[in-house]
Structures
1.
Amino acid sequence: MSSEGAVSVIQVVGLFVAGPLLVGWMRKVRCLMEGRVGPPVHQVLRDTVKQIRKERTRPEQASWVFAAAPVVLIASTAAVAWLIPLVSTRTSWGASADLFAVVYLMLVGSVAMALGALDSGTAFGGMGASRAVMIGALAEPALLVAILALAIPVHSSNLPVVISGGISHPLWLASPQRILAFGAFLIVVLAETGRLPVDNPTTHLELTMIHEAMVLEYAGGDIALVTVGEAARLALLLGLMANLFLPWGIATHLSMGSIAVGLAVLIVKVAGFGTLVAAGEVFIAKVRLFRVPELMAGAFVLSVLAVVAAVVGA
Amino acid sequence: MNHWLIPADALVGLAGSICGAVLPTRFRLTAAALITSVAAGIGLLASVLVLSGAEAVSFHSSQVIPLTGVSFSIDRLGALFTATIAVVSLCSSVYAIGYGGPGLSSRRSASVLPLFVTSMLLVPAAASMTTFLFVWEAMALGSLVLVLADHAKRPEVASAGQWYGVLTQVGAAAILLALLLLSTRTGNLSFTAIRLHAHAIPMSVRSAAFVLAAIGFGSKAGAVPLHVWLPRAHPEAPGPISALMSAGMVNLGIYGLVRVGIWMLPGGPSWWWIALITIGAASALFGVLHSSTETDLKRLLAYSTTDNLGLVLLGVGASGLFAATGHRTLSAVALLASLLHVVFHAGFKGVLFLAAGSMQKATGTKDLDRLGGLLSTMPVTGLFFLIGGMTISALPPFSGFVSEWLLLQAFLHGSTSHNTYLTVAMPLAVAVFALTGGLTMVTFTKAIGIALLGRPRSEEAGTAVEVPASMWIPTGLLASSSLVFGIAPFLLVPSVLGAVRVATGSTVHSPLQGGWQVGLSGVHGGILPLAFAVLLVVAIVAVAGGRKVSQRGPVRHAEPWGCGREIQTARMQYTATSFAEPLVRVFDDVLRPDHDLDVSHSAESRFYIEAIAFHTEREDAFERHAYRPAGRLVAAWGDIARRVPNGNIHRYLAFGMAALIVVLILFA
């Protein structure tokens, strides 16, 4: 196997281990800040192992889509993790690591989960799916326009090019377009991963749920896949954001040393971002569902301003 | 040089029409549809000959129509459209045999179907103004008769036919005027001659012709504000006819616009293209908003045609704007992406309409709120609809993703230009594109989730049976094209590039990287659709295998969670209406829905409720605020005008006298 392939394998495997740990870490941070002890960081992994041993169930009359949805969620996350520069800018098929393509590959997983929820044939599944796809659709303009702002200075939407551009021009990172695009990205990532203020990941009240309502019917190995998939998605998006806006430390050569450094720096960056997100969540509450469009409109305005800044600055 | 393929195609079409008219009911549709598919096959052969560069195909004769004669000649631009329409027609006409039904098997429909398809195939081949208008009108009238196939059963069909009839004639009149303006200035009916002398035509005349052509062809492509016929006529037609119209005929609107706006009148000013971009963006957003909140399956698909063709118009407009600002390569990329999207859209919209027709045939309804669980009862049709829905949502590794990605690349590189128009228009185009894409995903998550998944919402949906192979095989053929071209777009790119070269009259090098990789040449990076497919498939197989191995015991079928309620019914599921409700609320100002809640109380006590009826309706804003007032105005004017001719012979003589005096004063 080529060294690029090895990097990709490290990224995929690492992501699915690190994702649950990240979620555990974020819970721990939140608990500590709220004055509670909280479960250990590896609790999510322990739960996953337990869930795999439990019985899988399937609602009556559900079709194969219901069982396929968690698998597709994992597959789309894994495909993105294989392509994009997380540990190193040199991944297998890195020429295809296009920012727009990454968005659409992630959408494959989102659509699969929404279809799985609708297949359960219950009110909650439909409710969660309806809300999730609405938020996803409204987040799309902000996301793609923010990507445009990042791609304009380097004349390419290829991720290694965008990230290398950031490394070789450190001043870009403090430029208005990057800062504005970062704001837009952050809001979109929070919305897409079901974090506060869009969705409450720890809620237990069906009517306020978005993401949890979609996965109510999954059990056993299926819920394990969903949990790991969602956690890996969060880690992936935070890692991508970290590399886009703070690219230092990412390996640009394929030596063992630089990859080890890249991995270590990535873990620090993602954990740092996770800590900030978790700390922020202590202080804010979930907004009403029909205020979310306003939040997305705000993100869209930020991204448009970022493009304006990029065009003026180019 | 081949001279016999075009007359052969026309003759086969005529033969099919005669078969449809004279044969007994039992064989009528089968014979007509089979001969139609032969005509489509000949069209495909002719266009493949042209696209591969093997042979030129043309036919000129002064004997067929007196005075003007007919003149056909297929170039690469026309061949791309003929080939696309031929494939859709081939699949749809074979599908029509199994679809049948009294409306489609009637003498009228069976005799018109071959004529409609043949004229549609010949539109891109027409090489002179008169020939073009002749086949264009034959196509428009043919489709009108076919839309009316079921008029005896449902009153909505007649109303749809009226809307379609009026708007298609308005469009044809605009096209006629546009072509007349150009041909009188050049004194020649031949398209090539008009193109050669186009630079001698004053700019004001060219602009007038472009605006008229945009109106005429735009209405055929379902662009706002002339789209109102489309969501009425396409859904009311029988299944295969809807597919022929929405996947085939609408493309000719784009063809006409490219033929006149880019090929015939090269070097158009920026404002033409900015206007076209605006119209395209408005159509895309308007179409997708309506389709995402629509609950009638075929209307949803029809609105999504407006949306997709709007994106194509946006791309064609961007291509023109690039050319007008001196970015020739980008112009080629944008046109290439738009034409690719036309071809891909024909494929996936054909799948969706054919599969929707199968569902309607099997359940007797196209109301999403009465469907559900069809993936279990109709597994094959359901799978194809699922593929179509994923393709239209631009999910990799299907074809819709490739064309949309290329269009995004054109917008991205346009944004980096130093031209003010481009730096303003391109980011906005990306935003429109993104919102359209997001809402398309909502639309098809809803269509798939409500129609195919969950529990059946009506008895008919629960007892539906799979349609015969003669219906699902053509659907599957189109569905497989989505996957094949999605993974290996290079199979199609040279043909589309040939069309782009003809349209722009340039010999640009391929603006794309070669091979499996799709990307702009000279730019690092791109996409490798094959890699996406391989990664997804390998990961799916690995994860599903892992789950199977680690699983203990079989999967248990369980009652889903119902908040502690014992019995769950299908009525408790979300419907298409409830699924789209949050969006209707968010876009309240645009959609302006009318809600109606009727609560009837029990006779004994008004504290007990006997029945609640909820009714919601959305009317097209253009219909309400533009067409209805215009219709009232015309009717009022007609009332006034009717008072003038009262049957009195003296009055008519006086009119004649007055007219004569006026003429004498003016011209003597």
2.
Amino acid sequence: MRFLRLVITIGGLLLIWGLITEITGLPKFILPSPLVVLNALTSNAGLIAVNAVTTALEILLGLFFGITFGMMSALMISAYRPARQWVFPILIASQAIPVFAIAPLLVLWLGYGVAPKVVMSLLIIYFPVTVSFLDGLNRTEAAWLNLAGLLQQSGRRSRLMNAFCLYRYIKIPFALPSLASGIRVAAAVAPIGAIVGEWVGSSSGLGFLMLHANARVQTDLMFASLLVLTAMALLLYYLVDHGLRHALPWLSDQQKPLT
Amino acid sequence: MGRDNHIISFPFKGIPTDVSDQGNAQIGLHLRLDRLAFGDTLVVDDLDLTLEPGKITCLLGPSGVGKSSILKILAGFIPLPEKSSLTCSDGEPVTGRISYMDQHDLLLPWASVLDNLVIGARLRGEAPDVGKARDLLHRVGLADRYDARPAALSGGMRQRVALARTLMEGAPIVLMDEPFSALDAITRFRLQDLTAGVLGGKTVLLITHDPLEALRLGHAIYVLSGNPVALSEPLLPEGTIPRDPADDMLKHHYSEIMTRLAASTEEAP
């Protein structure tokens, strides 16, 4: 059903696009028709595939590091309150500064390779992951904390060990649904960081390909790259969504999925 | 609902009651509460409550009268106010000897029934006693559901798991805050039987707004009323628990309690 819906949506959009090019008769360097783009896609398949691999690698690495740092920051802020005042300004700044503005700097420092793109994805992802996980960690129900406190009273472990166990068995599992929403947002926006990075300075990647196609008025190749990027982003999102739902099976016991 | 059927024939008395370790030592509890206020609202003023060792004490009163606040002070969820005292009959501190059962089952939705029972040990960084957990599940009639997640169980079954978890640490004092109020009448009735069976010998404080529940389970029943809240003289129904609701003595006490409760609500502004 979901697949059918996807096919109908995509088919409808392609149809509208084709009709517009047909009716207006725009030259193909302004708006190529879907068939021209398909032709560009097949004749440049190898070129697009090589560059797509670079972009995919950047996105995945950015996701991995962004989620890791975001989770670590959230845990740190939640466990040690004063850290909030130190980390939060950095957190807000990471989101407020447009990545476009620091992209040239990152390229200058880290070169034309994969590294600056990973850092840019990371910067975009860091904020939603940290904030959503922290929100989840701060919202453990008081009744559960009370009960956990009572259960720990008869123990002989140190306060640090108790705190660790509280996070391990209560706080983190309760926060996982919030973290999952953060990761979904991260999966949706991670490609932005990678593409912006490639746009500013790169030697391969879909952004690099688009930039060059644009300069040579190969609008059809640009559209083809864009379509591949969109497909990658959608695939990534649905894979992440699917994986998260499998990892948190008890959520579907309680509520219907959002998508 | 129908899955709870086998409970009624469950042979409580034939099963050894000392699965728990420290449960044999019966400890009384005495609370002297000077005053408890939330902001400008005085909830409790000068209250004296004794929990007799090995007995079930019921606090009965309408919603919002402050029953839960008293329980939360005993449990330490609300810090003990100034000039108040909480002492055990054996003079030892109360810390670590209380277990607690809530109106909500407070089961971890991601964990199996068995994992929910051993959560206390996990939280203390100890090795979980799976054998004991299975024994307790057997006693509450859920031996075959140890692997189920809470969402797969009925409300009555979840409260039975919560009851078993309450017994896991073998604490001699058990505080119960309206544990059956979210259940339907017949499930509640069966759980009262079960509770009377498994809690034998523990010092129990049971908070309830159901007079019949108090009369079935309570060795001593206090009716709470007024603002700030005051305790009535204790009602001490005779007979072994769980009592039969058809008993004439129970009917007599029932009307007496209803009269007291009615009087207390009329006094309210």
